[in-house]
Amino acid sequence: MRIDLSVPKVGVELELNKLLGKGSSGSVSLIKYKGRRDGEMIYAAVKSSNVIHADSLHKEFQILSEFRGCSRIVQCYGTKVQESINNEGDVEFKIIMEYASGGSLRNFMNRFKDMKLPDPLIRRFTRMVLEGLAIIHGHGYVHCDLKPENILVFPGFELKISDFGLSKREGDTNWWTLQYPFAGTPIYMSPQSVSNGETRRGLDLWSLGCVVLEMYTGKRSWWGKNYDLEDLKKGYMPLIPKDLPCDAKLFLMTCFAAETDKRKNAFTLLRHCYLRGDVNKITEPPLVKSNNSNDITLELEKIELRLSQLRCNIGGGETSGELKSS
After folding, report:
1. pLDDT interval class at 75 (50, 70, 90)
2. Mean local confidence (pLDDT), 231-259
3. pTM for the whole structure
4. In what order do the strands lie in the sheet with 26-34?
5. In 3-state terms, what secondary structure has residue 35?
6. Which of 107, 179, 243, 292 has its CA 20 to 30 A from that of 15?
7. Which of these is catalytic: 4, 145, 231, 247?
8. Last residue in a domain, options 72, 98, 124
Protein backbone atom coordinates (compact mmCIF):
# COMPACT_ATOMS: atom_id res chain seq x y z
CA MET A 1 0.00 0.00 0.00
CA ARG A 2 1.33 3.43 -0.94
CA ILE A 3 1.63 5.86 1.92
CA ASP A 4 0.78 9.47 1.09
CA LEU A 5 2.35 11.74 3.67
CA SER A 6 -0.14 14.48 2.85
CA VAL A 7 -2.39 14.99 5.87
CA PRO A 8 -6.04 15.86 5.31
CA LYS A 9 -6.60 19.56 6.02
CA VAL A 10 -9.66 21.20 7.45
CA GLY A 11 -12.46 20.91 4.92
CA VAL A 12 -11.20 17.69 3.35
CA GLU A 13 -13.95 15.09 3.32
CA LEU A 14 -13.09 12.19 5.62
CA GLU A 15 -14.94 8.92 5.44
CA LEU A 16 -15.03 6.72 8.52
CA ASN A 17 -14.66 3.09 7.49
CA LYS A 18 -14.74 1.30 10.83
CA LEU A 19 -13.65 1.33 14.43
CA LEU A 20 -10.36 -0.55 14.80
CA GLY A 21 -10.17 -0.58 18.57
CA LYS A 22 -11.22 1.15 21.75
CA GLY A 23 -9.55 1.43 25.13
CA SER A 24 -9.78 3.34 28.37
CA SER A 25 -7.92 6.36 26.98
CA GLY A 26 -9.51 6.61 23.53
CA SER A 27 -10.15 4.84 20.25
CA VAL A 28 -8.53 4.10 16.90
CA SER A 29 -10.55 4.30 13.68
CA LEU A 30 -9.89 3.62 10.01
CA ILE A 31 -10.59 6.53 7.69
CA LYS A 32 -10.11 7.20 4.00
CA TYR A 33 -9.75 10.43 2.07
CA LYS A 34 -8.45 11.67 -1.26
CA GLY A 35 -4.75 12.45 -1.33
CA ARG A 36 -3.76 15.97 -2.30
CA ARG A 37 -1.17 14.79 -4.80
CA ASP A 38 -3.15 12.70 -7.24
CA GLY A 39 -6.61 12.31 -5.77
CA GLU A 40 -6.03 8.64 -4.99
CA MET A 41 -7.97 7.27 -2.03
CA ILE A 42 -5.74 7.10 1.04
CA TYR A 43 -6.30 4.97 4.14
CA ALA A 44 -5.07 6.05 7.56
CA ALA A 45 -5.61 5.29 11.23
CA VAL A 46 -6.86 8.06 13.50
CA LYS A 47 -6.22 7.85 17.23
CA SER A 48 -8.66 9.95 19.26
CA SER A 49 -8.93 10.87 22.93
CA ASN A 50 -10.94 13.22 25.11
CA VAL A 51 -9.73 16.13 27.23
CA ILE A 52 -8.88 13.86 30.17
CA HIS A 53 -6.30 11.89 28.13
CA ALA A 54 -5.16 14.75 25.89
CA ASP A 55 -1.77 15.06 27.60
CA SER A 56 -0.97 11.42 26.87
CA LEU A 57 -1.89 11.86 23.20
CA HIS A 58 0.23 15.00 22.90
CA LYS A 59 3.17 13.17 24.47
CA GLU A 60 2.76 10.25 22.09
CA PHE A 61 2.67 12.59 19.10
CA GLN A 62 5.84 14.31 20.29
CA ILE A 63 7.65 10.98 20.68
CA LEU A 64 6.46 9.66 17.32
CA SER A 65 7.60 12.89 15.67
CA GLU A 66 11.16 12.02 16.74
CA PHE A 67 10.90 8.73 14.86
CA ARG A 68 9.85 10.04 11.46
CA GLY A 69 11.34 7.85 8.74
CA CYS A 70 12.14 4.97 11.13
CA SER A 71 10.99 1.82 9.36
CA ARG A 72 10.25 -0.13 12.57
CA ILE A 73 8.17 2.58 14.25
CA VAL A 74 4.59 3.34 13.20
CA GLN A 75 4.58 6.70 11.42
CA CYS A 76 2.57 9.71 12.56
CA TYR A 77 1.63 12.46 10.09
CA GLY A 78 1.16 16.19 10.43
CA THR A 79 2.81 18.84 12.55
CA LYS A 80 0.49 18.91 15.55
CA VAL A 81 -2.34 17.16 17.36
CA GLN A 82 -5.65 18.05 15.73
CA GLU A 83 -8.48 19.43 17.85
CA SER A 84 -12.16 19.24 16.90
CA ILE A 85 -15.70 18.96 18.24
CA ASN A 86 -17.33 15.52 18.02
CA ASN A 87 -20.98 14.68 17.42
CA GLU A 88 -21.72 14.93 21.15
CA GLY A 89 -20.35 18.46 21.29
CA ASP A 90 -17.23 17.46 23.26
CA VAL A 91 -13.68 18.51 22.45
CA GLU A 92 -11.74 15.67 20.82
CA PHE A 93 -8.04 15.36 20.09
CA LYS A 94 -6.68 13.29 17.17
CA ILE A 95 -3.44 12.16 15.59
CA ILE A 96 -3.24 10.56 12.15
CA MET A 97 -1.02 7.54 11.64
CA GLU A 98 -0.26 5.05 8.90
CA TYR A 99 -2.71 2.17 8.69
CA ALA A 100 -1.54 -1.39 9.38
CA SER A 101 -3.68 -3.55 7.11
CA GLY A 102 -2.49 -6.72 8.86
CA GLY A 103 -3.73 -5.55 12.23
CA SER A 104 -1.76 -6.23 15.39
CA LEU A 105 0.59 -9.14 16.01
CA ARG A 106 -2.17 -10.53 18.25
CA ASN A 107 -4.60 -10.49 15.29
CA PHE A 108 -1.93 -12.12 13.13
CA MET A 109 -1.29 -14.92 15.63
CA ASN A 110 -5.01 -15.65 15.85
CA ARG A 111 -4.93 -16.82 12.23
CA PHE A 112 -2.54 -19.68 13.01
CA LYS A 113 -3.36 -23.04 14.54
CA ASP A 114 -3.09 -22.81 18.33
CA MET A 115 -1.81 -19.24 17.76
CA LYS A 116 1.71 -20.66 17.30
CA LEU A 117 3.95 -19.14 14.62
CA PRO A 118 6.58 -21.11 12.66
CA ASP A 119 10.13 -20.83 13.97
CA PRO A 120 11.61 -18.99 10.94
CA LEU A 121 8.87 -16.35 11.12
CA ILE A 122 9.38 -15.89 14.87
CA ARG A 123 13.08 -15.22 14.32
CA ARG A 124 12.30 -12.71 11.60
CA PHE A 125 9.69 -10.95 13.70
CA THR A 126 12.02 -10.88 16.71
CA ARG A 127 14.72 -9.20 14.66
CA MET A 128 12.26 -6.56 13.44
CA VAL A 129 11.05 -5.74 16.94
CA LEU A 130 14.63 -5.54 18.21
CA GLU A 131 15.48 -3.13 15.40
CA GLY A 132 12.63 -0.94 16.61
CA LEU A 133 13.75 -1.17 20.24
CA ALA A 134 17.31 -0.27 19.25
CA ILE A 135 16.00 2.95 17.71
CA ILE A 136 13.72 3.72 20.66
CA HIS A 137 16.46 3.12 23.23
CA GLY A 138 18.96 5.03 21.10
CA HIS A 139 16.72 8.08 21.49
CA GLY A 140 16.69 7.65 25.26
CA TYR A 141 13.15 6.24 25.58
CA VAL A 142 11.71 3.06 27.06
CA HIS A 143 8.48 1.87 25.42
CA CYS A 144 7.12 0.40 28.71
CA ASP A 145 4.20 -1.47 27.11
CA LEU A 146 5.60 -3.83 24.50
CA LYS A 147 3.08 -6.60 23.77
CA PRO A 148 1.48 -8.24 20.70
CA GLU A 149 -1.37 -5.71 20.70
CA ASN A 150 1.15 -2.86 20.30
CA ILE A 151 3.12 -4.43 17.45
CA LEU A 152 1.51 -3.82 14.04
CA VAL A 153 1.72 -5.96 10.90
CA PHE A 154 2.14 -4.22 7.54
CA PRO A 155 2.16 -5.62 3.98
CA GLY A 156 5.01 -8.05 3.36
CA PHE A 157 4.84 -9.19 7.00
CA GLU A 158 6.73 -6.12 8.12
CA LEU A 159 6.40 -5.23 11.82
CA LYS A 160 6.34 -1.81 13.45
CA ILE A 161 6.07 -0.83 17.11
CA SER A 162 3.13 1.39 18.06
CA ASP A 163 1.35 2.97 21.04
CA PHE A 164 3.81 5.18 22.89
CA GLY A 165 1.26 6.56 25.34
CA LEU A 166 3.02 4.99 28.33
CA SER A 167 6.59 5.52 27.12
CA LYS A 168 9.06 7.25 29.40
CA ARG A 169 12.56 8.61 29.36
CA GLU A 170 15.01 5.92 30.45
CA GLY A 171 15.47 5.97 34.22
CA ASP A 172 12.50 8.23 34.89
CA THR A 173 10.75 7.19 38.12
CA ASN A 174 8.98 10.46 38.95
CA TRP A 175 5.67 8.97 37.87
CA TRP A 176 5.89 5.97 40.26
CA THR A 177 3.49 5.73 43.21
CA LEU A 178 2.20 2.91 45.40
CA GLN A 179 -1.16 3.24 43.64
CA TYR A 180 0.46 2.94 40.16
CA PRO A 181 3.46 0.68 40.75
CA PHE A 182 4.19 -0.25 37.12
CA ALA A 183 3.98 1.49 33.77
CA GLY A 184 2.42 -1.01 31.39
CA THR A 185 0.57 -4.33 31.22
CA PRO A 186 1.42 -6.39 34.35
CA ILE A 187 1.94 -9.76 32.67
CA TYR A 188 4.63 -8.31 30.38
CA MET A 189 6.44 -6.36 33.09
CA SER A 190 9.89 -7.13 34.48
CA PRO A 191 10.60 -7.80 38.19
CA GLN A 192 12.26 -4.42 38.65
CA SER A 193 9.42 -2.50 37.02
CA VAL A 194 6.83 -4.24 39.21
CA SER A 195 8.82 -3.83 42.42
CA ASN A 196 9.90 -0.20 42.15
CA GLY A 197 8.73 1.21 38.81
CA GLU A 198 12.14 0.90 37.13
CA THR A 199 12.02 2.15 33.54
CA ARG A 200 15.28 1.12 31.99
CA ARG A 201 15.75 -0.54 28.61
CA GLY A 202 15.85 -3.94 30.32
CA LEU A 203 12.10 -3.59 30.89
CA ASP A 204 11.45 -3.64 27.13
CA LEU A 205 13.81 -6.59 26.64
CA TRP A 206 11.97 -8.59 29.31
CA SER A 207 8.69 -7.73 27.56
CA LEU A 208 10.23 -8.82 24.26
CA GLY A 209 11.05 -12.20 25.83
CA CYS A 210 7.38 -12.54 26.80
CA VAL A 211 6.32 -11.75 23.22
CA VAL A 212 8.78 -14.23 21.70
CA LEU A 213 7.69 -16.93 24.13
CA GLU A 214 4.07 -16.21 23.23
CA MET A 215 4.77 -16.60 19.51
CA TYR A 216 6.22 -20.05 20.19
CA THR A 217 3.57 -21.33 22.61
CA GLY A 218 0.46 -19.47 21.49
CA LYS A 219 -0.13 -18.65 25.16
CA ARG A 220 0.66 -15.65 27.31
CA SER A 221 3.68 -15.85 29.59
CA TRP A 222 3.09 -17.62 32.89
CA TRP A 223 0.74 -20.06 31.14
CA GLY A 224 2.19 -22.88 33.23
CA LYS A 225 0.78 -21.55 36.51
CA ASN A 226 -1.57 -18.97 37.94
CA TYR A 227 0.09 -15.63 37.34
CA ASP A 228 0.78 -13.48 40.35
CA LEU A 229 2.82 -10.29 40.59
CA GLU A 230 4.48 -11.78 43.66
CA ASP A 231 6.18 -14.33 41.39
CA LEU A 232 8.05 -11.48 39.72
CA LYS A 233 8.99 -9.87 43.01
CA LYS A 234 10.46 -13.20 44.13
CA GLY A 235 12.63 -13.32 41.00
CA TYR A 236 10.81 -15.98 39.00
CA MET A 237 10.77 -15.99 35.21
CA PRO A 238 8.18 -17.52 32.85
CA LEU A 239 8.37 -21.20 32.01
CA ILE A 240 10.42 -21.95 28.87
CA PRO A 241 9.29 -25.19 27.14
CA LYS A 242 11.96 -27.85 26.71
CA ASP A 243 11.15 -28.42 23.04
CA LEU A 244 12.22 -24.95 21.93
CA PRO A 245 15.44 -24.71 19.87
CA CYS A 246 18.52 -24.34 22.05
CA ASP A 247 19.46 -20.92 20.69
CA ALA A 248 15.89 -19.73 21.26
CA LYS A 249 16.10 -20.81 24.91
CA LEU A 250 19.43 -19.02 25.33
CA PHE A 251 17.95 -15.87 23.82
CA LEU A 252 14.93 -16.01 26.13
CA MET A 253 17.10 -16.60 29.17
CA THR A 254 19.05 -13.45 28.28
CA CYS A 255 15.79 -11.48 28.03
CA PHE A 256 14.67 -12.92 31.38
CA ALA A 257 17.96 -12.38 33.22
CA ALA A 258 17.32 -11.42 36.84
CA GLU A 259 19.62 -8.39 36.65
CA THR A 260 18.60 -5.67 34.20
CA ASP A 261 22.11 -5.16 32.81
CA LYS A 262 22.46 -8.87 32.07
CA ARG A 263 19.72 -8.48 29.45
CA LYS A 264 22.28 -6.55 27.38
CA ASN A 265 20.79 -4.05 24.95
CA ALA A 266 18.76 -4.31 21.76
CA PHE A 267 21.70 -3.76 19.44
CA THR A 268 23.78 -6.42 21.18
CA LEU A 269 20.87 -8.90 21.07
CA LEU A 270 20.63 -8.37 17.31
CA ARG A 271 24.01 -10.14 17.15
CA HIS A 272 22.81 -13.07 19.26
CA CYS A 273 23.24 -16.49 17.66
CA TYR A 274 19.46 -16.87 17.68
CA LEU A 275 19.24 -14.16 15.04
CA ARG A 276 21.84 -15.34 12.58
CA GLY A 277 21.74 -13.33 9.37
CA ASP A 278 21.58 -9.71 8.34
CA VAL A 279 21.84 -7.28 11.22
CA ASN A 280 22.86 -4.25 9.18
CA LYS A 281 19.41 -2.72 8.68
CA ILE A 282 20.08 -0.20 11.44
CA THR A 283 23.18 1.48 12.74
CA GLU A 284 24.24 1.45 16.34
CA PRO A 285 23.09 4.66 18.06
CA PRO A 286 25.88 7.14 18.82
CA LEU A 287 27.09 6.94 22.39
CA VAL A 288 28.77 9.45 24.63
CA LYS A 289 32.49 8.78 24.93
CA SER A 290 32.92 6.18 27.63
CA ASN A 291 35.42 6.08 30.42
CA ASN A 292 37.77 3.18 31.09
CA SER A 293 35.24 1.44 33.35
CA ASN A 294 32.62 1.46 30.59
CA ASP A 295 35.21 0.21 28.08
CA ILE A 296 35.92 -2.76 30.32
CA THR A 297 32.19 -3.46 30.68
CA LEU A 298 31.81 -3.37 26.90
CA GLU A 299 34.66 -5.84 26.43
CA LEU A 300 33.10 -8.18 29.01
CA GLU A 301 29.80 -8.01 27.11
CA LYS A 302 31.60 -8.98 23.90
CA ILE A 303 33.22 -11.95 25.64
CA GLU A 304 29.85 -13.08 27.06
CA LEU A 305 28.32 -12.75 23.59
CA ARG A 306 31.04 -14.96 22.08
CA LEU A 307 30.51 -17.57 24.80
CA SER A 308 26.77 -17.52 24.13
CA GLN A 309 27.38 -18.03 20.41
CA LEU A 310 29.75 -20.90 21.19
CA ARG A 311 27.13 -22.62 23.35
CA CYS A 312 24.64 -22.32 20.49
CA ASN A 313 27.07 -23.74 17.96
CA ILE A 314 27.87 -26.82 20.05
CA GLY A 315 24.22 -27.52 20.73
CA GLY A 316 24.13 -26.54 24.40
CA GLY A 317 22.02 -28.41 26.90
CA GLU A 318 18.44 -28.32 28.06
CA THR A 319 18.06 -24.89 29.63
CA SER A 320 14.39 -24.54 30.27
CA GLY A 321 12.07 -24.44 33.19
CA GLU A 322 11.02 -21.94 35.77
CA LEU A 323 14.15 -20.39 37.20
CA LYS A 324 14.69 -18.16 40.17
CA SER A 325 17.32 -15.49 40.55
CA SER A 326 20.07 -16.18 43.01
Report:
1. very high
2. 89
3. 0.81
4. 15-23, 26-34, 41-49, 91-98, 76-85
5. coil
6. 107
7. 145
8. 98
